[in-house]
Amino acid sequence: MVKHIPYLELLAKVEELEERLATLAGMRKPDEVFIDATPEGYPVRILQHYRDRCDGRIEAHPPSPVYDIMNEHQIERAEVLDRALAKLKEEG
């Protein structure tokens, strides 16, 4: 037998699960994104936006080699973005 769940209860449960997933992933719930698209400084703004959001880490209990690799790659991406931003800021 299928249990009927009222729509608002279902929405509340979805939101709760999204929050739990974000917490488990070491990330926050995504915000609405706005990046000024005027040409001057646009590449820096795009990269800075991404860089500001790539410090999250995944913590697993028990530890997971897959998550360890994902975290290492996240650190490497942050380093690449830091170098790219430094070069763009020097040029601009």
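the 2nd protein, sequnce then structure:
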Amino acid sequence: MRERHNKRSVSRNSGFPLPIALVYPNTRKVGLSNLGFQFLFNQLQGSDVFSPQRFFVAESFLKNPSEHNIPVSEEDNIPLKNFPVIAFSIPFENDYWMVPKILIDSGIKPLRIDRGRGDPLILAGGVSVSLNPEPLADFLDLVFIGEIVGDIDEPGGLWSMILEFKKSRIAAHDREGFYNSFRNINGIYVPEAYGFNYGEDGGLLEIRPDQGFPDRVTATKRLSTKETPPFAMVHDQQTQFRNSCLVEINRGCGRGCRFCSGGWIHRPVRHFKYLRFRDTVDQAITDKKTIGLIGSDLASHPELNIILSDIINRGGIFSLSSIRPEGLNDEIIELIVKSGQKTATLAPEVASKRLKKVIGKQIPNERFFELIDKLVAAGTPNIRFYFMIGLPTETEEDVQEIVEFVKNARQIFVNASRSKGRIGRIGVQVNAFIPKPWTPFQWSAALPKKQWEIRKKIIENGLCKLKNVVVRHESLRSSEVQAILSRADRRISSSLLEAARGGKLDISSFSASHLNARFFLRGYEIVKRFFHGML
């Protein structure tokens, strides 16, 4: 957070607008690059009934995590504890521990059970908590599950509910009664209203909702494509997408890759018509901003060629969040080069034909080799590959095929580059498979550390002597933490609280939990039955 002194306080009386703290539990540089966080802030800011202010983690925290910083707002240096409503936007599990950390540093009781009359309402939303809110359940009053739907001021939704909270503070100060008012509102999970029974082995036996609360919380989805899609102008030069205009033109993916949560929780696939965000593109071109097109499956957007051609023909520049090989036709490749992109990113994920079938991403290696030749010939000097290791049924032979894939790709890359008079670089990013909720692989086991090291060495030893090839691995420690939090429940809250008090979160932090955290890394028998016909 920014370390400044308080200039003024936030009013907690009944007057409008309602002050609301919007907290991104990472640095300003990361938060301002997040379209969801920016979009929500802009919506709240445009409302007549809310007065939002943003909070980020101080850059100094990265250098000294044990340092105590009093969180103050980006806009007016107002302490977080002065706000009656605090909303966390959390897209990544590894930032979960920052929720109690930020509350503690603000002088706010981190555990919900310890808060009461006069304390702020704490809520959270974002992709990670929509997948699994339970690790944070003991810290939160309310959780928003799904996508922001409709206008901020629309009756019956999340934000009108928050206004209701303001009234309840003025009147009875009855939190239990307040929680009960959300029993029938889609997309709202009230952790206080759910109890759990566990077996001797630690497995979940029963979920016990309080009377009137649903057995299942229905996620909200923005199904209409007739409204303006989420967008944000990024002005700050310190962010990843500096001087950019980010626009989500597609949501959801119908490809069905079994490891990808985005392809399952955001169904059905929705594409925004160009007409709906043409004005945003016009403004971005006028302001000389790079237009960052965001989507889970840009390749299937029916107007992609038209959108990119229009941007280029009017002197604009675009970037693509990702695009599958199916969408990289000759025209798209030419437009990418004209836009000045120096690196093309391709995600084979795996290289063996058998494992491609298992994960549901059956793009032949030959298609990637063909694209490398076309991209380099068109003027793209660098290629980046994304691979995963630790996927269900994976063997060391499957990992060796990644090595052979990169060797073949490099030969094609070098041959195509020579005709250009320069040879760029191939980046190989290797990440660990993380079992994610709501995917067909949600009950698979995470790869044990020893196996990770062995398979990592296969790739390193196979590629280390190749010129123009750079291999990078995701941190195993970070991957283990993410894998635990992806499927953990509220029994892990003591570990997050201990991490917050100690100033760091790593695998050792989970010793504070009553349950061995590695319980959440294991696989389940149902997975073996599911893959029986694919082995």
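Residues 18-209 form a domain with the Rossmann fold fold (CATH 3.40.50). Residues 1-14, 526-535 have pLDDT under 50 and may be disordered.
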